[in-house]
Amino acid sequence: MPGTATDTAYWALGAEAVAASLGSGAKGLTAGQAAAQLAALGPNSVEDAPRLTALRLLLRQFESPLVLILAIAAVLSLVLQQWVDAAIILAIVLGSSLLGFYQEYRASAAVEDLKKRLALTARVLRDGTEQVLPVTQIVPGDVILLSAGNLIPADGLVIEAQDFLVSEAGMTGESFPVEKRPGTVAAEAPLSGRTNSVYLGSSVRSGTARVLVARTGRRTEFGTIAARLHARQPETDFARGVRQFGFLLIRVMVVIVIFVLSVNLLLDRPLVESLLFAAALAVGLSPELLPAIISVTLSAGARAMGRRGVIVRRLDAIENLGSMTVLCTDKTGTLTEGTIVLREALDAAARPSDVVRQLAHVNAALETGIENPLDAAIVAAGCTEGLTTEGLTKIDEIPYDFVRRRLTIVVSERSDPGHHLIITKGAFANVLDRCAMVDRNGGAVPLDQAARAQLDAVFREKGQEGLRVLALATRRVAARSGYGQDDERDMLFRGFLVFLDPPKPEARETIAQLARLGIAIKVISGDNRHVTAHMARSVGLDAPLILTGEDLAGMRDEALWHLAPRTDLFVEIDPQQKERIVRALQRTGHSVGYLGDGINDAPALHAADVGISVAGAVDVARESADIILLSRDLDVLRQGVEDGRRTFVNTLKYISITTSANFGNMISMALATPLMPFLPLAAKQILLNNFLSDLPSLAISGDNVDPERLSRPQRWNVGEIRRFMIVFGLISSVFDLLTFGILLHVFKAAEGMFQTSWFMISLLTELVVVLVLRTRKPAFRSRPGRLLLWSTLAVATATFAIPFLGGVSALFGFVPLSAGALAAVVAIVGGYMLATEIAKLWFFRAGASEAAGAGLNPGGRK
Fold first, then answer.
1. What predicted TM-score, i.e. pTM, was given to this entire model?
2. Cα separations (Å) of 190 from 11, 78, 159, 647, 786?
3. How far apart are the first and last CA of the chain?
4. Is-catalytic flag, 330?
5. What's the sign of the alpha-carbon dihedral 690, 691, 697, 698?
6. Is the dihedral of CA 451, 453, 456, 462 positive or negative?
7. pLDDT tens per residue, range 579-589
8. How far apart are CA 207 and CA 162, in angstroms?
9. How large is the greatest C-alpha to C-alpha distance in the chain, in angstroms?
10. Which member of 330, 396, 597, 609 is catalytic?
11. Which of 323, 402, 455, 579 is the most buried (most CB within 10 A)?
């Protein structure tokens, strides 16, 4: 904000000075102040615009090289005063562009609606009270409350902090979390040296803090970097496939156009007519509605998935979801109910203990760090039994983190003000490691090897019953201020907290259904091997091989590449090992999905081919994901996979069918051009043919998909598309040449009749081929979508009508056909349909044999 301390090196000033310059204080801004700031500075966003405007989207339709080819042809016609040809070309350009605009605008609006459901929020102090607001409404002067798992929504100064560690690798390159604390640093301190400041785009690893917002939006460090360098997302398989397909089209197009243009000029045909014909051929070969088709198909898939509770954050992630062969997930809430309950609190001798239950309740009720279901279960059980924290005052907290795997609360008891009680709970091994004594019948005895073995036996026994176990320990010390991790030592082991999280009844069937879809489940859990193995058996996961975090730590990458695909259970895993497992699976040819919702899942979510999170996940996990599940349910994900595959299959249908049909027609015209006294089709007739054949294609996005296509992962295969285009294109060309012979030698057709007849045959074969090639089964055994069927029939009806519509017929150079000619048209189309059906069965049978011989699985991977 102009004229404030934040225009300078605010990190070198005191927090009070910065707050005063912003009109703020310890209680943050008032609603009125915030509204004024928001109006002056705009929303807290570094994006250029949340969405393309209607005008920009319309103009984008004219950026296509195909449209530019048509525009050049129209200008050429206007210069040469070919008014009718120019008008037809411009009408078709405008019609195609408006059709694409309408579909893409609807798709864009639908995706924006889905994104709004996932808008990030933050806890902010306004008018002295805590409120949850969208991060876009945060302004300089706001005081925000941060805890583990939060994404930092703006640049600011730390006012208060408790064991506050921040991951800011994306800003400074520092791979390890750094501690942030109140204070001042030198004005010339580099970004990495500003230990009192936090930055937009970083995330909270552990602890809690209050932060005074200093800069928002484009004025943040992240915004400055973004303004200098617009980072590109890594190219996905889907985008790579579209690019490779484009290169294939360009190569074919250049060869055909140069050949046809050269032949026409050698035959001394008019230059203008030859140029228009060549341009029309180039456009005719290309599926000019492909951008609109892709947008429509993917957005239709995204909307369908959204209705099922699967929100797509990036449209091209749909292809990755459909190609997934391995899903890595934790067990809690995915394979289990996720409604964890405290089953029992036991002392060190495994007897029920009210003392351990009370200590656990105090620890859970007073913690303010990461919200988690275990603490919620403890508090819920305590409230049911009337437990309270009355008589206790919280002195300090050492928050949970994923290295220590324990949480400590320090309290003062009214009955003993001279001492403080340290209460620690956490993973069994991590708590036991900090203990020197064990509680036996109210007395402390040394924790020797025999005692450790007894405690470990209890832990193992409970785990084998499928129960999750935490340990609890205490230490009494002289009262003082300030506690840290070093105080977690020489503790007294008090007992066990035993939790029950039963498997979901439907988990076994869902896992079986995913297996039928070609997706293997791999459980990656920080929990112990006994609990995880019991859970796996209960949901039908056969896990003869289990790898632990300790195993991975001593294992070379090459060994992990060999073992990871054969292992279904990874247990006692450290957070940093999750990404390593994902990359090992990718290295061996798998397309990996990763489902996670925690802070420690973010690296693995980034590394996976498709990152999947849930609506209630921590900010950093949700923002790292490509797909968001509104409920943590594998069956919802299974439906999402099927929707993803359906969407991808329909996109490939359009590409394969349209290019093969167009390729055949263009080859036919290229071959016929030097042998005929006139052009087989005029440029305007080619463009009309291409436009009408594309209308039913828009309905492919909602076409039915055969169950067999949903049962295996789908991937781009440009080589198969090329073979498809050549095989079915050449079949089309054979029938075209047969048509030419019949028209010229049987009917002695003049130019008007020839062009009319072949226009009808060319267009009808393109329509027929959509219904035949949309399925790999015999066409009569697979029902097309209603919209596709009826739109195809409507265009077919129009095809027969056009030659008999006087004005339209004359405009395009058509003439009415005799009954004999119409019968020949129908016979040729029927023969083409039969030949295509036979060739289709051979093509896909040969393709399946080739894949099997190459050792490929159905997803196309080794």
1. 0.68
2. 11, 62, 20, 48, 63
3. 57
4. yes
5. positive
6. negative
7. 899 999 998 88
8. 5
9. 114
10. 330
11. 323
